[in-house]
Amino acid sequence: MTATVTSGDVRTAQVGARPNWSASSILTQVQVLSGRSLRTLVRDPRLVILSLIQPLVLLILFGQVFSSIAKTPGFPQGIGYIDFILPALLVTTALTSGLQSGVAVTTELRNGLIARFRSMPISTGSVLLARSVADVCRSFVELSVMALVAALLFGFAPPGGITGVLGSLAVAAVVCWSLGWVFMAFASWLRQPEILQTIGSLVTFPLMFASKAFVPISGLPDWLQGFATINPLSHAIEAARGMAMGKPDLTVLATAVGGCLLIALVFAPLALRSFRRP
């Protein structure tokens, strides 16, 4: 016996059938998710203002309060302190921006947003990658504003010109991107913003102050000079400073960028593994 299916039955079957949704590409997922993060930042003026205040406070504090360091023996001749310090501030501010990536991940894990993403056909790797892209874009804007304010108000005019400043910004962006994976790995593992911020402070302050950022390395105590020499942040600062001064050292630049890539290659898989944990 052959069953007869009427057109009404066909329409009913078509209406009741569940559509076979297919996941979008990783590139599309990253584009949409990073755009969402950036729109969230722009829609809240308080977040925009607060994200710009900290770099400007650092600029005023270190660029003006410690400007007398330029008169001490051992300071490079013919270089203003603002030209010396700003490339370092770009890199150290990028370090704190990387910490903010981890804090954002813990916040989204706790408020249920990540649980909603997991119910969608979205790759978990896309969520972290989009967070990394969005935070690098945000950090680049913040650092660009810092450099612009330094030029307009404090006479920042390095010998490398605009090209050198853009090179310094690029180095800082790479630092932000690589260290963001470090803090996202800790965030996915700990899932507690308070603990993450404590660990972040313990990591960032020694890296910042025991480096070549604020004074020439010869001005540090002997026991700190050795650490400052091997400090990975010192290599990034030296690379950014060389770009701004119009005297880029390709060896230092390759060491800084290579170190950042190595950090990302180590911590990105760790972040993804911990992030996939329920």
Summarize the structure in words.
The chain has 278 residues and is mostly helical. The protein has one domain (24-275). It is built from eleven helices and no strands. The chain has helices at 7-16, 26-43, 45-65, 81-110, 113-118, 124-153, 161-190, 193-209, 222-230, 232-244, 250-275. The longest helix is centred in the middle third of the chain and has 30 residues, at 81-110. The chain is globular, with a radius of gyration of 24 Å. Residues 1-21 have low confidence and may be disordered.
Provide a compact summary of the structure.
GO terms for molecular function: ABC-type transporter activity. By secondary structure, the chain is an all-alpha fold.
List the SSEs and their pairings.
Blueprint: H1 7-16, H2 26-43, H3 45-65, H4 81-110, H5 113-118, H6 124-153, H7 161-190, H8 193-209, H9 222-230, H10 232-244, H11 250-275
Helix pairs in contact: 2-6, 3-4, 3-6, 4-6, 4-7, 4-8, 4-10, 6-7, 7-8, 7-10, 7-11, 10-11
* C-alpha-based Rg, rounded: 24 Å
Number of domains: 1
Taken in chain order, the helices and strands follow as HHHHHHHHHHH
Low-confidence stretches: 1-21
Number of β-strand runs: 0
Number of DSSP helical runs: 11
What does the overall shape look like? globular
Class per helix and strand makeup: mainly alpha
* Percentage of residues in strands: under 5%
What's the pLDDT, averaged over the residues? Answer: 85
End-to-end Cα distance: 52 Å
